[in-house]
Amino acid sequence: MGKEPELKTSRLLLRRWRKTDLEPFAALNADPVVMEHMPTVLTSRETALWIARIELGFEEYGFGLWALEHGVTGDFIGLTGLSVPRIEAHFTPAVEVGWRLAREHWGNGYASEAAAAALGFGFSESRLDEIVSFTVPANTSSIKVMERLGMTRDPEEDFEHPFLEGDSRLRRHVLYRMSVGHWNDLH
Q1: Taking Cα atoms as reference points, which of 154, 65, 82 lies closest to residue 123?
Q2: Residue 76: strand, helix, or coil
Q3: Is the pLDDT of residue 132 over 70?
Q4: Residue 51, C-beta contacts closer than 8 angstroms, at least 6 positions apart
Q5: Which of 11, 4, 3, 5 lies closest to 101, judged by CA?
Q6: What is the pLDDT of residue 5?
Q7: Which of helix, strand or coil describes residue 160?
Q8: Cα–Cα nearest to 119, from 91, 90, 99
Q9: What is the rounded average pLDDT of the residues 41-67?
Q10: Could you tell me the domains of the chain?
């Protein structure tokens, strides 16, 4: 879509993907602690295919899940950004804000900082009316990020993830929302 979006915060750079990102991203996706709230760890090949899908999303929508880099050191931290969920649920079609960071970068506020930049881009540049986020109830760290961002949850909207089996411990998901009006009120 013409200009490739790149976002900067005081400490971070959200940018398009590079070939050099594959190795650290594959390591992140193979870490069972990072992937605790996901159905499975990912192989290097699965990670490469995911990056290719992310890049196609940038071409189709003008936004996506950016590679997340430390602004000073240039270290790859993980990903943060916007995506269109491929599930059918009561709230889709939708745009989701999401993040996944390497464990050594947890606890620094990077997820909240980068996600806020992605939300700002989604509302100001992409002119979205609403952005959602969802996870399993046990993922309290991500829920705290959603709440720090000012996203809100109505427990009546929580849902069963359609891609997961009925007995999966990960099937139940909480849904958080942010409207452009609420975003503007906060900023």
Answers
A1: 82
A2: strand
A3: yes
A4: 17, 21, 22, 25
A5: 11
A6: 80
A7: strand
A8: 99
A9: 95
A10: 7-186 (3.40.630.30)
